[in-house]
Specification:
The structure is a homodimer. By secondary structure, the first copy, chain A, is an alpha+beta fold. Chain A has four helices and four strands. In chain A, helix 1 crosses helix 4 and helix 2 crosses helix 3. The radius of gyration of chain A is 18 Å and the shape is elongated.
Chain lengths: ~120, ~120
């Protein structure tokens, strides 16, 4: 037995969570929402709509489009988007640590007895 | 902004969580899975399949059927089912308290600034 959970930031709906966090990290590396979505098995249009929804709920832009240039454009994560991503990652780690601790406090005995 | 989450006990799939906990509490009161499911807007067959799945994953019975008698039978929660329900409720409260604490540690400044 173990504890399972999902966690997210909510502002009249999901405003940020593990999926968006991974997507932004990938955009940061690839400079492209298209490639980032692709890596996660998500269609570009779905990723685009997701970003629109999150930006609305957060009240600030996560991505900025770069048009033209030698690489033919692409997307980049805004500085507020990068700050939120890092902030969320630290929060996420702390949540994980705490949930595991609470789980073991309440259900740790089951493990000790060798139950699964 | 606030933190959103779902939590459950997992043993090769969801083995217990908020929904099952509420369902068992209602069975305890009504002595009937049928009525308990109904109160939660769930079909009897769905509730029955859910209980079967949870029992398989937990490795013990949650309900026992009472056949006949003046009330025409019904379901009762087993003593292990009752113990798990109480145990889970205490765990759930502790998780909630801890997640809120971690959220405020990391994102509390946003509230203080009056952001939503």
């Amino acid at each position: 037995m173990k504890v399972g959970y999902k966690i997210w930031l909510d502002n009249h709906g999901k405003a940020f969570g593990d999926g968006p966090c991974e997507l932004l990290r990938r955009v940061e590396k690839r400079m492209s929402l298209h490639q980032a979505a692709n890596q996660m098995g998500m269609s570009y249009s779905k990723a685009w709509r997701l970003i629109q929804t999150l930006e609305e709920r957060l009240g600030f832009a996560l991505l900025e489009r770069k048009v033209g240039g030698p690489s033919g454009g692409g997307s980049q994560v805004t500085s507020r988007g990068k700050a939120l991503t890092s902030h969320y990652e630290r929060f996420r780690k702390d949540v994980e640590k705490n949930i595991e601790k609470v789980y073991h406090k309440h259900f740790g005995f089951a493990e000790k007895k060798g139950r699964k």
